[in-house]
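Interim report to the steering committee. The following record documents the input for DUF7477 domain-containing protein (399 residues).
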Amino acid sequence: MLSMTSDLIFFRGTVRYASVHAHLGRIGSRRDDLESLAYTLVFLLRGRLPWQGYQGENKGFLVCKKKMCTSPESLCSFCPQPFKEFVEYVVNLKFDEEPNYAKCISLFDSIVGPNPDIRPINTDGAQKLIHQVGQKRGRISLEGETDEQPKKKIRMGMPATQWISVYNARRPMKQRYHYNVADSRLVQHIDKGNEDGLFISCISSCANLWALIMDAGTGFSSQVYELSPHFLHKEWIMDQWDRNYYITALAGANNGSSLVVMSKGTLYTQQSYKVSDTFPFKWINKKWRDGFYVTSMATAGNKWAIVMSRNAGFSEQVVELDFLYPSEGVHKRWDSGYRITAVAATWDQTALILSVPRRKPTDETQETLRTSAFPSQHVKEKWSKNLYLASVCYGRTVS
Ligand SMILES: *[C@@H]1O[C@H](CO)[C@@H](O)[C@H](O)[C@H]1NC(C)=O
């Protein structure tokens, strides 16, 4: 449960040479070793790296951000050409991709000259490691792949913001959505929904306007909400806690106002929240140890609000925090029984909470979409396949 974040908190290795994936708390693979080697070589050659000099609590984040937006060309602008090619090759390796060591070595032939006495590289150890982590791969072949061009996955460029929407398979139910809702129109939508037997299941904000999902499948018996100019309004939340309401959805607008929805009829027994300028990994880690799980999350500008509850119905939980939508991580987690249970994004980062439910759902299907406009047409198509909106957020997803 703690594996995803322990690397981030108890960061092992040197920040200066760490791979981007190591910064993001991913499980290390040989790709990461090669990326560190590339940074080390460039450092030895040039005497410094572009991400040196950051200080303070946010250092790791700033270094990681700089690494992600430094192109191989600019990193290696004063290095011989093979270094640039090496950096390009290693930063584009996939998690379980077999590094082509022979190719890496041959890149440097032009500057060190081919050495006929060079010993063949023994990759037996590496191969054992692969089998231990359960990857099914064929035998390592150093021949035959040498002509393959490295895949181009561009890390730089203008950030783009999108809607991320998450759909779960459910028995047919009534669901309704509203988007681009101004503050003044919230009441009428919510009142109408309540009249029709719907409660708010999730909310989000884009450009200081609200997106609102209401449905008949929440299991809540009663619901209250507050629109507040604060992120978040502590007194109101504490009053509702006293009345046995728990936070079940929240959203923050860019201008710092928030919409908090609290419901009766959840299984939660205790709840706690934190508002923070950086993603509060340490706090989450501590709460996990106390039996709390993240149940809602929102951002306002670059601020995060995380809600954690006891008796949340999960047996395990991880956080995927990335500078872009972490599809590689999500697919790996889906394969091992996790489902996305909360999403939030700032202009810089996207956070996904993935949890293993205590009670396995009869249909585990979960799908995600990233769209530049609110996915109204897609939602309707999903309904026809009994897939219902479960989480939605707006923020940075690609770079
Ligand atoms: C945030 O923006 C909305 C829409 O422009 C406006 O109605 C609201 O008063 C603003 N809130 C704050 C706290 O500035």
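Residues 1-10, 118-158 have pLDDT under 50 and may be disordered. The committee is asked to note this result when reviewing the revised timeline.
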